[in-house]
Amino acid sequence: MEQHILTLLIFLPAVGAVALMLLPIRSGQASGGSLAVTAVSLVFAVAELGLALVAWSGISPGMRGFQFRVQADWIPDLRVRYDVGVDGLSLMLVLLTAFLTLLAVVYSTRVERRAREYMVFLLVLESAMVGVFCALDLVLFYVFWELVLIPMYFLIGIWGHERRVYAAVKFFIFTFAGSVLMLVGIVYLYVQTGSFSLVDMTTVGSPAAQGLAAIPARSLMWLYAAFALAFMVKVPLLPFHTWLPDAHVEAPTAGSVILAGVLLKMGVYGFIRFCLPLFPAQMAASAPLFLAISVAGIIYGAIVAAIQPDMKKLVAYSSVSHMGVVMLGVFSFTELGLAGSVIQSINHGVSTGMLFFLVGMLYERRHTREIAAFGGIRRVLPLLSALFMLAAFSSAALPLTNGFVGEYLVLQGAYLSDHSGPVYAAFAALGMILSATYMLWLFQRAFCGPVRHEANASLSDLGAREKLVLIPLAALVLWFGCYPTPWLRMAQRIELAVLPGPVRSAESNALTHWAPPREAQP
Amino acid sequence: MSEIPIAPLVWAIPGLPLIGFVLNMLWGGRIVRLFGDARGRGIVGGLATLTVFGAFAVSVVALSQLLGLDPEHRRALASLIPFAERVPWIVIGSVSVHFSALIDPLSVLMCLIVTGVGGLIHLYATGYMADDRDYPRFFAYFNLFIFAMLVLCLGESLLLMFVGWEGVGLCSYLLISFWYDDEGNARAGNKAFIVNRIGDVGFMLGMLTVLAAFGTLSFRTEAGTGVLDLAAQGRTAAGPLTVGLASLICGLLFVGACGKSAQFPLHVWLPDAMAGPTPVSALIHAATMVTAGVVMVSRMSVLFVQAPTVLLVVAAIGLFTALFAATIALTQTDIKKVLAYSTVSQLGFMFLGCGAAAFGAAMFHVTTHAFFKALLFLGAGSVIHGLSGEQDMRRMGGLRRHMKVTYWTMLIGWAAISGFPGLAGYWSKDAILGLSSGMVPAGMVFYLVGTFTAFLTGFYMTRLMAKTFWSESRTDRHGHDPHESPPSMLIPLIVLAILSVVGGWLGTPWANAFERFLEPSLPEVVVAEGHGGIPHGLGLVIGALVAIAAMATGVLAYRRAPGCELLSDAAKRSNPLYRGANALWGVDGAATAVFVRGGGRVAELISTWIDRRLIDGLVNAVAVVTGFASEIARGVQTGYVRFYVKTMLAGVLAILAYALLSAGAR
Amino acid sequence: MGPPNQVVADLGGVIPLLALWCGACVILLVAPLLRRGAGARLAPILGGAGVLAALVAFMRKQEAGYGSSLFAGGMVTDSLYSSGLLVLLLSGFISVLVAQSYLRSRGIAHPEYYAFILLSLSGATLMIQANDLIVLFLGLELMSFGLYVMAGFARTDPRSDEAALKYFLLGAFASALFLYGIMLTYAFAASTEYSNIQSLVAHGALKQPMGIAAVLLLLIGLCFKVGAVPFHQWSPDVYEGAPTSATLFLATTAKIAAFVALLRLFDVFAGGPDAWLPVLRAIAVVTMIVGNLLAIAQTNIKRMLAYSGIAHAGYLLITLVCVGLRFAGPKGTQASTLALTANVFYLLAYALALGGAFGVLCYLSSRDRDVQTLSDLRGLAGAKPAIGYSMVLFMLSLAGIPATAGFIAKWQVFNSILTGGDIALSVVMALASALGVYYYLRVVWYIVFDDPGTTAQSVSASERPSGGAGAAIAICAVCTLALGLFPSAISGFLTVVR
Amino acid sequence: MSFAVPTEHYLLLSGLLFCVGVAGVATKRNPIVVFMCIEIMLNAANLGFVALGRHYGEAGGQIITMLIIAVAAGEVAIGLAIIVSLFRTRETINLDEVNLLKL
Amino acid sequence: MRPGVLMFWALALPLVVSAVMVVASRNPMRSALYLVAHMLLIAAMFLSLSAQYVAAVQVIVYAGAIMVLFLFVIMLLNLSGKGVLERGAGWLFGMAMSAGLAALMVGAGVWRHGLHAGKATAKSLSAGGTAQSIGFTLFDPELPWLFPFEVASVLLLTAVVGAVVLAKRKL
Hints:
The complex is a heteropentamer.
Chain C: H1 4-11, H2 15-30, H3 36-60, E1 68-70, E2 75-77, H4 79-106, H5 112-129, H6 133-151, H7 158-189, H8 194-202, H9 209-226, H10 234-241, H11 244-269, H12 277-296, H13 301-324, H14 329-364, H15 380-383, H16 385-399, H17 405-419, H18 423-448, H19 468-485, H20 491-494
Antiparallel strand pairs in C: 1-2
Helix pairs in contact in C: 2-3, 2-5, 3-4, 3-5, 4-5, 4-11, 4-14, 4-19, 5-6, 5-11, 6-7, 6-11, 7-9, 7-10, 9-11, 10-11, 10-13, 11-13, 11-14, 12-13, 12-18, 13-14, 13-17, 13-18, 14-16, 14-17, 14-19, 16-18, 16-19, 17-19
Chain D: H1 7-27, H2 31-56, H3 60-90
Helix pairs in contact in D: 1-2, 2-3
Chain E: H1 3-24, H2 28-48, H3 52-77, H4 89-108, H5 122-128, H6 131-138, H7 146-167
Helix pairs in contact in E: 1-2, 2-3
């Protein structure tokens, strides 16, 4: 079990998807069939979350290195290995994935149109996402990375809203175009190092590491650029963000949740997992640029979010802003900033996920996302409103909600970083104001005031299914806000550590001083 | 650091209100339904009030135990939750924050004020809000506020203080927009929160700088490595504390204080905050929350005294705000607005005190102001209650006959805030003014302008009294007659009135028990008496004269004034001073124009032009151009064989030409 | 005079070829003896049997190594041949299966079609086995003759006739160019056999204008067959006009044979890369871009796949570039060896995806409706999930999305070109494939996004000839997925060693 | 051994003929004539092969030529069949009118 | 001028002219007849290159069978007068490119360098073109022509069947 838990984690949902496909029901068949579909997908989603929790509890706290590592030959001709392992960072993201997918499944039990396909795609998506977070072989990673696109493309395209085709294609091509150069980069790395293994490349003295060290700095910079572009598009960082509002808005609710909750994190994860150990010097050199666009993203996303007339779009743009915070943390190269951005990633998944669910619930009731179509519904939907407010404040990083912990750590980390950190921190802190502005303004316009539209007067408050989705999220919002310690501990267990040398100088916390050994060599 | 026996129970100070919040939030509505309306509301309100008084009781015990210690040892750490050491909040790298309280005179004083005055206002609110349909929600929020305020006061580190800081902001937002069915209220709540957030950014940045400089966020630690411990020794974690660093930190923190304590130019939210129910105005926007800035500055006073420039700025902003708000208060017609601007003005006085390094005096004013301003607001609430919601003073008048208790208690409040000799406001305000006169530079300017503002205070308060209680009645007669409020509202009035009289006796210049009590929390910088300033005795006399003069002028002026208006409508229109003050000196208008409308326009432009048209436009342009190129290029596929042959031939020719010619060149 | 039993022994090396010929002859002889219907039913079985016989014969005699010659050097059997033949026969078998359904639904189920498949395959086999330019030329013509006939097989359809004419005229023109290239090669080498040419290339024959012209004319002749720009213009028209099953066959067979032949041929010319490598690079770049660009505007799937095939030819030409690096240092040698396997694997992945995609079109075609436009596929996934998602899989494989064979294929191409150190070309390929994703996705969205409409999917009701196409789709889907997940499973068959 | 007429002359002649054929293919609109021009190209190659065979003193060139003649014969058979078939459905073989498939 | 040279030029000029006339004739029938002439001239050229057997094959197969087929189809389709030369940009362009190709190949000296000294001897020349020597060479297992020769038969089979399939009125 211990040995194969990651393999199980990765492939269990896929098995579930296959099981769903094989269910002996007609596609046209109504209730009985959909019940079976629901049951099967729920069973697998729950089992996946259970497995993730088992892995979480099983990770040995003191040990260094990747846990539950499994290595096997996959494509021996090309020296591609099935190499999986987790550290704190990946495990957190796996857990988040399993959790949000379960909620998405629960929420989507109401989907009637092509329900079986829907669940199949959700489960396949889950498999791919978990795979992304577990893979330690670059090819394996890339395979999962691209695989994620397909089910999401279908989710947006089939069950999306009016402009779904546009959004789905834009999403796919944008991210594909971003990552295809990474493929070139991966192969180039292989050609130079003779290995696809991240661990090999970062193990001192291994032939792969020597190969990496022998790559000239110019080439490394280009390599880094290829990787960074893929991840930037995914995060997304300014100016590669425009796929995001379209995709989020057009996706069905569960799709938006997973898109925001997990998919965006893949970009962050890529930066931390791959760019940081492989190209530390290049990444440090690019830090001023990335810090600047992260901060610009924070402010820009918030400003654009503020005036969106469409609720979902507003939340989508707020994601741009929040992911700016996350990237600010990554590029601060400080322990605090890094941990903060990991925490913030999780938090963003939880609170933006919650917001998307809530917007989805409103959409289900009124079939519109226009803010102007609402107004005064707080009186009609007290519970939904309260939870919306909670999510909004979490998004605005109110202390004792999850949003604060991450944002504070990121700001502190940014402040402590080299590269005139205080300046970036100061500008980033403006996001505090702006996030409060757009969230509260949204809340005011949609929920406060008198009930202006007849249709709003008779809406019904949350049902059991919706509570089942929202209450866990709300609990997490408060839990992470009040007791983030377990997550912080996990977030510190990032395996940058494969890098040797003076990893982090105790005084400044700065990780930029990891002089990678190759710099020293002539 | 000392041990005090009550330490294991300190969690109850914020904890009890928190419990009240949770109970009322989750089950308040159910209780009301279960026990019937009247009894249910009694239980809900009672529960809320009792938790606050319970916290008050614990605070009193803490005070007594603290007083039992030597003054220099009056400092203790206590945990706010069980197993605080085991269950930290944020511990990573150099950030280590636990849910712990710092018990020292400053925090205990604030606990007493918050729970004491807060308890009274809770009691008052059980009457004032009795008929509100969201009764449980109100008390839940109210309790939550008390909790947050106590965390702010008690927190042992800046980050925990920030929790309370934002928490009170949240409660302020919730309570201002409590009656959210009116979108104006919601908007006012937003304004409060957002403007506060501007200040919070300052606080946050200050905090970031503190951690960077001191390596910790704790105020005091057992090992003496807290921020204040180090700052008191003039050093940081790594080296000496420079004036520049201290100024940076203090400047940033002061921005935070400006936001929370409504100092110019961040004062704009406070008058709007009056949209909330009156107990909210009394508790949050007069007595407690708005003084948080002063508390914070006092808490960090060890640092502030090492940043003289910042102190000067603090004083200047305080003084300007005091004068500025006082002039506006002269023209307001909404009774709560008058009191709101009065609050802004009084907060200005407090910061003047802080700026003069007279933190003790500032805190003293915080205390007395809590008494009399709460009293005034509650009185005003009583009036509003009595008039079924009327807030416009132009439609009041002659209420002294109908609302005797309210009238008399308000009268005491009036005297206290105006600085009538012997009452609470007199002592605290004069302490501040006296000490400010010794400031370097320009101490006398501060003193004179401050004294003039004190005169204005007396005058606008007299105007309020005259318009509300004394003049002939201008109430609409179609409603009910004005009626006196229920006892639950009057008892707090009476208690606060008493406090407004006696509260100042703790801090007379002769026997300043108050300042001596606070001393362990404040830096050991004493502004030498008379050093460049005016002597104490003279100050007291001048203060008394100014107060009496202001009150007398007001009384005389308004006794004669027809319809209780000093200026005719025409004069109001033509007088630039009146118009300026009545227009809030244009600050709100400008802020709205720039930040709300201008910001909205800019956001619109960015969204449309940069985001949609430029960035997304480029993305789509790539797609469109590609598609277009494809459409154009497919035209090459003419379908004619001869054309295809020619294309092939051209290819052959080009390839051969290139290869042969380049080979020839080689 | 050598011993005659040497000739007999050499015949052992061409057994697959002989099997194909025998199959063709049997069909041609037996079919006229039977009644029309019976002949039409029997022919595909015979055709399939012929291909399978060739496959079995080939499997019994796996070849390793490189360049073991037969018939006094005219032909070889080696690992490039054996892996190429595997791909070729597989695609031929799929073509037979698909034709079995399609020809009947179009009412042109003449038994001779299968004979042409076998003959054409034999020509292709000759091409990949040729070690002599004349053998290559004969193979090329033999293959082309079959393809011309198959393209025009729907004789009453003016589009089919037009396709045949265009293919024929342009093909003959290209053949003439190719032949002239042979003549010039013969002029400097005094021989048409590869080893002789190679030794002269090593002596700098390609520095002379004659050598340059020769090698480029040979390149152009074969570039025509693979559809490289600017010799590509026949392919959209022919793909569209030819009967779908013939389109499938000519799209896969011609490409496989021509590319394997190119590899072998340019391995010979690798000693003088200056003469042709820059040209080849340019052709590859232009081909990738033009193919992908023009595919975007297409709404006819066959036509779109033609342009897509052009783009894929561009990617495949990159492997040829690698071959040109053979003598450019150790990395170059490694790259050229990798490129051989990469090329064959790519061809296999391409053949599977294309076989599946055209198989789907054939599967859906009926007597009234020849399915070939995007809107014909609208909502297919809802109506027929297995077929619809198989088509999705083929499109993804063509787009090179992971977990499909197409990805592994692209991967190997990247691997070989980057080993060779040509980063620019790999970047162009990456960007071009990103450009290409769009039109594959468009097919996917037509299939999947819409609910089954009223217009499409009358197929389920009609009396569509069953069998072949469905089987072909299943084989292709399973293989595409399996090769995407476990490509090493068949590396024993596909890896080309030198 | 030297020849009265150097082999290069034959090659040049074959090249010219080849180019004439190319010109015809590129300009004629009757597919039969186009096809004839292709035959000219093939013959040009044949001429080259025979001349080269003589130059190198081996029979290979001639054998190649014979094989090419066979191929040409086959090509003609199929090509003309295609043209006939096209004429049957379209009533024309003018290449400028054979234009259903394009873009 | 040696007779060989004279003969070369005497054949070369008509060869070029006949080829040009194939292209230049408006009537396909004329083109076909010029082509017949061209084929015969080529055969003569083969003779001058002492390739007697090939010359015979050229006359029989090409000038005979193939050209008859051409003429037959032309008559069948009754296309006289339709093969008009196109004039204009396209025509000019095609001509220019062909001329350019010729100029390029001549200018670059494609035919000039590259030939190396052959093994030709007087014996090989005298024996070279007879049916016997061709036959021996063709079926020599040491030489690679045997199998291609067999392939040619399949090629012709394919062509024959293909022509039938395409052109027969009813299959």
